[in-house]
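Data availability (excerpt). The following record was deposited with the supplementary files.
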Amino acid sequence: MSDSSLSSCTVLVTGATTGIGHETARQLAERGATVLLHGRTAEEALAAADRLVATAGIDGGRLCTYAAADRLVATAGIDGGRLCTYAADFTHLDEVESLAHKVVAEHPHLDVLVNNAGMAAPERHTVTADGNEIAFQVNFLAHYLLTCLLEPALTSDPGGRVVNVSSSLHRTASIQWSDPNRARRYSRLAAYAQAQLALTVFAADPRVTAVSVHPGVCDTALLSLYAHEGVSPAEGATHVVRLCDPAVEIVNGAYYDRAERVGPAPAATEDRTVKRLNKVS
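Predicted structure:
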């Protein structure tokens, strides 16, 4: 199925190897978009693309792959254009930077960035090599960096947008401005919620038009943070894909609970909070 409003779009989906990200990539590709699939490793990203080719009826003759390192991943018998895979481990910000530079070089015009990659905070306080609490870096800081570096591609033509896959748990959060790494007082749920609030606040940044969406409680690796059961990742992905569609009008900083636009946590709409988050980030 090809959708005329998406068929000319190029979309980067982070965390596209499993769950909501993978289903978002599938639905976008089925509607004719050029989809850039991000995975933690080149092997995981390529395997995800292979699954799409095998199961979604996508033309296998149009798959190209790139890694965060400056090397082309060979794919016998496959070349071309509509599915591209990229790799970057978000626990290493230098890989995020390499990913952004590669994307801008290969796709100087990007219509949509879907900031989806995420992880549950671990039971024990964990700090990355970059010196950040791991959930805050993977769920927010890496996306902050990626979005800022992709700004030239997202704004090369009018209409570029960012879709942040956030969470209703952002409403329970507070950002510990003096200790965003939560070194003094750590809770895995509070750390995860803080990252989701930061991602939601970031949507109100004026540099690139962005929205946030809670895709519902879905049966993914993050389910245990919410409930014992959830809807399919494919169902959650439909709400993300709708916001990627240029035919759907969006307002910068808007927040959606599935298909319904609702008010986010009050902090997410405060100019002072946006500026403060930029300074911290």
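Summary of structural features: Helices lie at 19-30, 42-55, 93-106, 134-154, 188-202, 233-244, 271-280.
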